[in-house]
Amino acid sequence: MRKILLALLAAAPLFSLPVALPAPVQAATAVATADQPALLAKAETYLNGITSLKSDFIQTADNGQSARGTFTLLRPGRMRISYAPPVENFIVADGKFVYFWDAEVKEQQNAPIGSTLADFLLRDKITLSGDVKITQVARDDGLLEITLVQAKDPGLGSLTLVFEEAPFGLRKWRVLDAQGKLTEVALQNPEFGVKLDRDQFYFRNPTRGRERD
After folding, report:
1. What is the residue-wise DSSP string for 81-122?
2. In order of start, what are the domains of the chain with their CATH numbers?
């Protein structure tokens, strides 16, 4: 599990607990190039409208492992992923760094937000161009899927945002890391525009206290 979780520092929230293997996912249908700009603009507008988000989630890895937890987002720059018991690991972004606490070995690892795919969702202004390269826009049974990579380092991995089209809204995302491992995070009962305690977005070593301001 630790190996899977450490991939967060190069991609997005990853965690695991054993469950049954998920059913195979059917390939989505690519959207015609001429239709993509309007869809990308719609997604940009929607994402930039998210100031805060709190949601339960279920994550499933391509090896069939899964876990539940709570995801909180306060843009720009702040995010927290808390795991349901018995997992005591957690992930937090404080505006500058993304931290991962490994409860098993009682140590943390961190990386600048800008060096991870999490930067896309945490930045002040989200754009689907510039330092982000769109590799695919597709539709699948009422869902819009937009896959992107970092333009300067596409080998870091890809992030696929999955939106429900009616009503339009973010429902899940998938991360394909540099080692080819695929993980899906599905939001459950998301709440947008909620008031969040900013204090939760600081890393605290559970054995000591607050690490950064």
Report:
1. EEEPTT---EEEEESSEEEEEETTTTEEEEEEGGGSTTHHHH
2. 2-19+31-191 (2.50.20.10)
